[in-house]
Amino acid sequence: MTATLPPKAAVDEGARRQRRRRDDAEPELTVSRGAAIATLGALTLAAVYFLIPIWWLIVSSTKSNTALFNSNGFWFSDLSLIDNVVDVFTRQNGLFSRWLLNSVLYAGVGGILATLLGVACGYAIAKYEFRGRGLLFGTILGGLLLPAALLTVPLYLMFSQIGLVNSVWAVIIPALVNPFAVYLGRVYAAASVPDELIEAARLDGAGELRIFFTIGLRLMSPALVTVFLFTFVSIWNNFFLPLIMLTDQSLYPVTLGLYNWYTATREANYNVVITGSLISVIPLVVAFLSLQRFWRAGLSAGSVKS
Amino acid sequence: MTAAPLIDRRAGSELRPALRRRPTRFRGAILMFTVPFMALFVFVYVAPIIYSVVQSLFATQSSGLGFGEPEQVFVGAANYAKALGDTEFWAALGRILLFGIVQVPVMLGGALLLALLLDSAAARWVSVYRVLYFLPYAVPGVIAAVLWAYLYSPALSPFVAWGDSMGIDLDFLGPNVVLWSMANITTWVFMGYNLLIILSSLQAIPRDQFEAARLDGASEWRIAWSIKVPQVRPALVLTGVNSIIGTLQLFNEPQVMHVIADAVSSSYVPTMLAMGAAFVKNDFGYASAVSVLLAIVAGLISIVYYRIAMRSDA
Asked: Which CDD domains does this one have (chain B) (predicted)?
């Protein structure tokens, strides 16, 4: 706030102090103590709801199969975390690490390509005038309205005819098309890439591709991270598609692999499924926490207002 | 271009008919940006729809002697008639409709309420809460379902153990309860995600509107209801349509609960019904007909919801 003040005001100490006091005091003026406590109480209660299963998962991953059944579910008992982790990574000749790598590959490659393809298309819809633009956008949004799971069985039949079933491509190709990326790409391009800047770059002789890659993508970079994050998560989390497409266990993503272990109820698998689940969630949680800063980089917000 | 070479852009945009006759500028760039996506879109979205519709008009019949390739026979609308006359289909459809009517409003109402609280002047540590709420979205749906399945299962559940110690018989897997146990899983996974969309839409509202309302003596509730909620309507439409579509293709939760709950049959929801028809009975025609019907239902409900949600009050 003070940074935007004109230099003249900096000299006028009194006015500046007065202004700052008003900014600082503003929330307290409008919010009673009771309202603040009630708000924080409600927010905390909701946080407990969201955290309980995760807490249970963490606690349970430290327990042996017998302790899982004999001890208080929400508190630690015997500490078998290391045994469990070893069990997860050695079961079926270390198939679990293969599943993790597969998930990273599917979600990483698929996420990057889906983000670029979708955002480029959204950018074109936002920044160029051409005939059929509305129809194009409408068709893509129509794709958003379509329950994608319903396409999986016909896709399986199509893929089986061209020999793509039970391969890496069967999982990656459908993931490349994310209508939501187009939607977000259009919204963000319209909001954060000024037409004047594109015109100026054109006058300087830059080609359209170069403008997109050097100006468009850079101004949309917080948006790109967001789109990538969501695409990555949706691929990482996908279960129905690999369930239908893959039969070879060594191609499974981690979700399908764990589900497979889960369904084998006759074997005492609980500790392996629970610890494996915790391990499979960690990469996503880390990604979310570390990419937090990106979303809030207010690059786009700044240009929306101007 | 030649018709109005000297007219500046703002003036030109008022002359819509003149613009329309101009050849598209930057044709190459536009194609370069849109064609890769659209080509894949056609391959992965449009082709399967057409394939599905065609498939739904055929039935697979084994040839007379029972040997050799099964034949595809055109049966017209027979698969649709079969679906519409199938009590399993109606039961499955009924379940997800009931699920959606309750779960979607509960989840979105909760998300809106939490977003408003986070956006209010009374909130503190907003970024901490935001992360905590969003955390479940980082848990893959099927893993979340497995996690909750354990939290529901009588042998493992700490909740059931609590209930036992207090003399209350908790049964999360009973025929009348299990649908709501699943609704809880879906809500747990997606509420934070929807909350984030609504919250970012809330935060985009210019703050001076609230200042003005506060100066006029409006309460925070009044500001939330009369200024904030109307302006996040597009976000509510987006999350609402998303949730409706998600509900209609509900699969992870019932598929996982099927393993531990007798009340969840292998055709509990339409997606499971279609999958069973396709891969267990090899009846792709019937599976396609079910999918097409479900897509039509999804489209109709989304359109109705969109109409209602975007209806202007003016």
From this structure: TM_PBP2 (cd06261)
